[in-house]
Sequence to fold (337 residues):
Amino acid sequence: MHELPVINSILKVVLKHAVDNNVKKVMAVHLQVGELSDLEDKWMQQYFDHLAKGGIAEGAKLKIERTPVVMKCTECGHSYVADLKKDKKLMCPECGSGKNTLVSGREYFIKNLEAI
Amino acid sequence: MSDEIRLIEVKEDILADNTEMAKKLQEDLRKEKTFLLNLMASPGAGKTSLVIQTIRKLKEKLAIGVMEADIDSMVDAEKVAKEGVPAIQIRTGGFCHMDATMVKTGLDAMDIKNLDLVILENVGNLVCPAEFDTGAIKNAMILSVPEGDDKPLKYPLMFTVCHAMVINKIDYLGLSDFDVQKCKDHVLKLNPDIKIFEVSCRTGEGIDEWVEWLYDEVKTL
Fold:
């Protein structure tokens, strides 16, 4: 639903690094997107294509890797991967506590660029 | 230089700037002793109705301000201002959520030094507002009975980031197959610490419990 601002922020970061590295053309952008993001790869690419038109990132492919939801147990401090979409009680595999905080799973992390 | 493909390391999270700004904003709010509540819900769940009910119950005890965020129009701020509290309307101009920078702009336009509680009525949807920290001291969301008890399964992030959840329109329960216990079970599985209130903004049922929770939170800031 908020593809436009998200992709716009990604493009800004991409262009900043491309300019800093005297890049002629950005070929691909490696992204890590948290499992909690509702953005679909196909639409992210379409918005990117639209926003990048006419610049050095035009035509760049988004290579998207999904990163899992990681919770940290507030009782024992253990971190574990959770599947929030399954209707199952979240429990720490170490101590069984249901109390936790979200460590990661909502990020849009730009790992690196492939460029010439 | 040849046209060989180079790999350029970036390592930047696009939400990092917002998270940083939200952290700073929250520190400032704590210093000023101004409690910012970020209220989220779908369109029509009863955000403005809950804001108005809350103002009516608390305006003698707390200095309240309201920040209304909508893609367009002034209708919500006008409704709230009729209750005799300062209200500003932020038009997000197509943006589907409020981020920390927008909230800061709104707070700068309010006299927050003299306010105990600012309620941010976020843009109506269960997706985007959950992804962006606003700097609020607490997040709350409203789920109304006509929306269905399965929403925690569809929008887990929203239910994960909230400290309180208001089930509104409980006066409709008899007309609906909404199962309150099932809904609560779904939510508590995602977020065992969340406080859940069952209210009807129309009849006033359950509003006191919600207001009491909010008042205690403001007072213990």
Summary: The radius of gyration of chain A is 18 Å.
